[in-house]
Amino acid sequence: MHKNQPALLVPIAMTLTMLGLSGCSGGVDKATSDRLLKLEEQNKQLQSRNASLEERLAKAENQTNAAANSKPTAPAEGTNNSGDGNQTTTSTTANKETTPITPAYTDLTDLPQKKMILDLAKYPIFENSDKFKPFETISRGEYCTWLFKATNALLPANKQINLAPGTKPFFTDLKDTDPCYPYVQALANAGYSVGYEDNTFKSQKPITREEMIGIKVGVDCGKAIEPYRSQMQFIWKFADGKQIDERYTGYIQRDFYEHGPLGGNIQRAFGKIGAFKPKQAATRAEAAATLWQAGEFANLGAIADKTMDVLKNPKRSNSMRHSAKSLADTG
Asked: What is the pTM of this model?
């Protein structure tokens, strides 16, 4: 049994014992028995997920320690999509002097997501401007454009998303003259759920929090995720969890387990929250924070891997392990 196993098992076993002892006056009714069995099953799932996360953390830390003790070398060249349909060859080296051109945004003072935005600004993701406009909403089309560019900038060539020129339009309301068209087409062609069930996309509509997390986690995991409302409510305990659209419940549930150096998508974007506000429009700052890491934790595509030393910081490493342990105490 894992040393960081959830603390839920003992209370369940004790409950069963007490109920069994009191059974001389009539026994445990079927509804109670079924509920206890269900809780035991959820407990086993949490133990399994916690063990998996611990293993991932251990692997990441081993890789980090190995890298810290070795002589810096240049990573292999990869193919990066510039966003205009042309493939450009880029190389990020640890021992080569580079001077990235980062926009001098003048409106990020005291913003929680400031560091993440500046990290991302070193890549061709955002529009060129002296203002980031962090508190403005972001449209669905613009978010998918950022998501495509960020994913291909942070992940290795074999995990990048290809453009899909010449493919039949996936959405009835998205014209090929829309700036986001090639990127939305690419995401849809790769199998990601980015539109609505009526085959529309609504590119100019502000993206909501639940839509943003649903789309981003789907791309991180590389697959569609089935709804899972009961488990989502069990682990997140959002006060407004019932307001979350059914189609996004599985993605939001999954984000609880897909953490990185600065937490999962929800934590990076919104911080510690008790209400999710699923229908509220996401801001540009919140959207950028979700993009700071690409891919699942087991295959980190975080900017931390390319431009920061977060994982080499012992305090950060300890906080990551503490996050894993906290999963065992959830519930």
From this structure: 0.65
